[in-house]
Amino acid sequence: MLGIVLAFFRYYLDLCFYNSLFNWKYKIMSNINQQNLLNKRIYSYIIGFFISFFFTVIPFCIAMKKKYFKLNFLIFIFLICAVFQIFIHLKYFLHLNFSKKYTWIIVSLIFSLIVIFIIIFGSIWIMWNLNHHLMS
Fold it and tell me: Are the CB atoms for 32 and 79 separated by under 8 Å?
């Protein structure tokens, strides 16, 4: 009778339906595990938001009081906060870490950064040379 209810039961088309009917403990445990994973991700996003907000407010407050600081100090603080922001976004929003599991993702990220570096500084170099040769 079960074969009539589950259409094409030999082809495993309704395996999820079959497991949900007869294996309800598995379904409940699966939902609990998914809920725990969802809570960890939301917690990670909230922590990342507050840390990145903190590293955004610091340069903003320092820029508002720029008459008290030297320009070199301002640039140094801005760059440090920007680097921290990059690592915070990689860890808390992209969920990357430097474990063996993410080796190829990190390698592709480094390759992308190298390509971006070549494009940006190559364009600046070309424009600098054009300016030097055409305007002199």
Answer: no
Q: Mean pLDDT over residues 79-99, rounded?
A: 88
Global pTM value: 0.59
Sign of the torsion angle spanned by Cα atoms 15, 16, 19, 21: negative
Pick from 12-26, 72-86, 101-115 the range whose average pLDDT is largest.
72-86
Secondary structure of 62-121 as H, E, C letters: HHHCHHHCCHHHHHHHHHHHHHHHHHHHHHHHCCCCCCHHHHHHHHHHHHHHHHHHHHHH
Return the closest-CA partner of residue 93 out of 57, 123, 56, 51. Answer: 51
**3-class SS at 51?**
helix
Token pair 């909230």 in the structure block, residue: 46
Owner of token pair 């190829």: 104
